[in-house]
User: Fold Ig-like domain-containing protein from Muntiacus reevesi.
Amino acid sequence: GGLTGPNLLCAGRAPVVITPPQSVHNVTGAQVYLSCEVRAVPAPVVTWRKVTRSPAGNQATEDLPGDHVNIAVHVRGGPSDHEVTAWVLISPLRKEDEGLYQCYSANALGEAQSHGTVTVVDRSQHGAPRFPAPADRL
Assistant:
């Protein structure tokens, strides 16, 4: 028989999201990150995707970092056994980076996903006076 025995199968666990990404907001030009902690046996592969919705209402996902020079993805094992923590870092933040970010994890036994939202406030509109104050002209 080519069976490896039932014990190996029993030890496996499909991915479970331990800590889902928190939704964040910041001004343009700032730095934000989302993190996602997943537990699975064997350790899962974790990827980040940006979810975009077309004007027609179709949903599309884009694997990150893709061709975005301002987005970095970092994945490492831990903090404990069979856990993986993944981050997506956006710096500098641009208005078009706003949206839904999906942490997607998978191993041979299954998959899990969770989402965090990035909201971007335009710095020029953030806390600026409605009318130019006289001091602005100095």
In short: Residues 73 and 86 are 7 Å apart (CA to CA). The two ends are 86 Å apart (CA to CA).
